[in-house]
Design a protein that fits this description.
Number of strands: 16
Largest sheet: 8 strands, mixed
Distance between the termini: 36 Å
CATH architecture of the largest domain: 3-Layer(aba) Sandwich
EC number: 4.2.1.12
Number of domains: 3
Strand order of the largest sheet: 9-10-14-13-12-11-15-16
Pfam families: ILV_EDD_C, ILVD_EDD_N
GO molecular function: 4 iron, 4 sulfur cluster binding; metal ion binding; phosphogluconate dehydratase activity
CATH class of the largest domain: Alpha Beta
CATH topology of the largest domain: Rossmann fold
Enzyme class: lyase
Strand content: 5-15%
Function: Catalyzes the dehydration of 6-phospho-D-gluconate to 2-dehydro-3-deoxy-6-phospho-D-gluconate.
Shape: globular
CATH superfamily of the largest domain: Response regulator
Amino acid sequence: MAVHSKLQDITNRVIERSSESRSTYLSRMRAAQSKGPSRAHLSCSGQAHAYAAAGPDQDTLATGSNGNLGIVTAYNDMLSAHQPFERFPEVLRKAARSVGGTAQVAGGVPAMCDGVTQGEAGMELSLFSRDVIAMAAGVALSHNVFDAAVFLGVCDKIVPGLVIGAQTFGHLPAVFVPAGPMTSGLENDEKAKIRQQFAAGEVGRDKLMAAEMAAYHGPGTCTFFGTANTNQMLMEFMGLHLPGSSFVTPNTEMREALTAEAARRALSLSALGNSYTPVCDILDEKAFVNGMVGLMATGGSTNLLIHLVAMARAGGIILTPEDFSDVSDLVPLLARVYPNGLADVNHFHAAGGLSYLIGQLLNGGLLHPDTKTVAGEGLEHYTQEPFLQNGELTWRPGTAQSLNPKILSPLSEPFQKSGGLKRLKGSLGTGVIKVSAVAPEFHIIEAPARVFHSQEDAKAAFKAGELTGDVIVVVRFQGPKANGMPELHSLTPMLAILQGRGQKVALVTDGRMSGASGKVPAAIHVCPEALDGGPIAYVQDGDMVRLDATTGRLDILTEGVMERASATADLSDNEHGTGRELFAPFRAAVGAADNGAAVFGW
């Protein structure tokens, strides 16, 4: 089916806007390509250093001309999602040897867990960790001895950082390798209920801890549809995963087969063969538009509104908030996965998963079908599912029907006519709201503001019983320049309790919420941020604020607000401790949230 005219218009707009920067980027990548296999240009001493510890691969590296695969890994065993990566390098090495190639761990990148740091000082490093990861990936590949690369990463800032790093070496083929979700544990709605009961003082910490351990109980990605699983979805929509590989659980025969195939596929795409497909050719304007479509169709994480912009700019592609808004208006919501429903990603995968979803969108003209991918030419490859036949990996067409219409809907009967994210604009600045889990009666909130300069102060006011009646909680000085733009997800139980009491409540902040932003309306990523003197810095307790997700408005209704002196905040406590002193240069250099909140000068 032909691409929808409105989707093509959005894409043409992105192409035109990006023409100069994209051309500059591609010319650099072509220049890097023209130099040929990297390690051939090293001195004998340089090559000897690179091969000294390669064991059984040393002779092949020194005398052969087969491909050498660089492994960039985010392994650590503190993150459940990344613990399975411990074994992946050996699987990748063996697979590379099976086709006459070699593989080496090029380097590791940091990987932090926002679930651990929620509400803690460490969260102020979280967003900046994306750019650290990109730089670390650049260092890993800077030895310039690789013909292709695989990237092992899953969670929130890790995949975006790895994508930025991969595009810096965009002349190399790149395959992204997931670890898969943990098996299903305590149901997400039950976990959320116990969190609210704890916040209200109805249950003790022993019951809370038992619930959390039952939910997060083994290796793999958290099973709700937060930023980590949104990342995995995007890697298929954008053609960097093997088809159907995102949501296969760890430590299974299928997971290992897909990991081995990733090594073989990456080497097959190198310039040494006949199917050269560098990542700079995969991640073009159409791929990023497809990524935005996937984000809207699944009701994915609001964090990707920042990350996709930064990822695109690394390849010379300029995305704007209006692009996301227009895609959201066009693309319906086709998935109900927690927090937008009761199902987790394992249920989503069983119901037909990404192959069904991509098939529906392709048939409706809501995806570009002619993109390059690691699976070959065309996104049609991603309507297939992997199977093991006599121990060999193969792909077959995925289901043409949803196996659970409560989780996955056909395009003809969407859960919502528009996507899960809405752009906001008004006298309070610009922002975004995730509405896919917000009940329609809460899409418009008009209430007096209660203003805080930290989430701790907001929670203290709640515990003191001060947040009565309808209220819009404003938490400011949480932007990237102020304190690294932490997620404020620890406010979610408190706000949900207020809403459950019958109060009309919303959050307005220049910070972020988790990819698990749920049923409470939250206007986030407000720009300009308070530290830059944005309108949010002028709001006072009692000012009337209106959040209207139906028309996309975010306004201060009180007269004369901008005639006041703007608020200031003592941010000295945010400048040290838990590593924050090391990130002062980042806070000083970071761009605005709507430009990707990056420290790079694209």
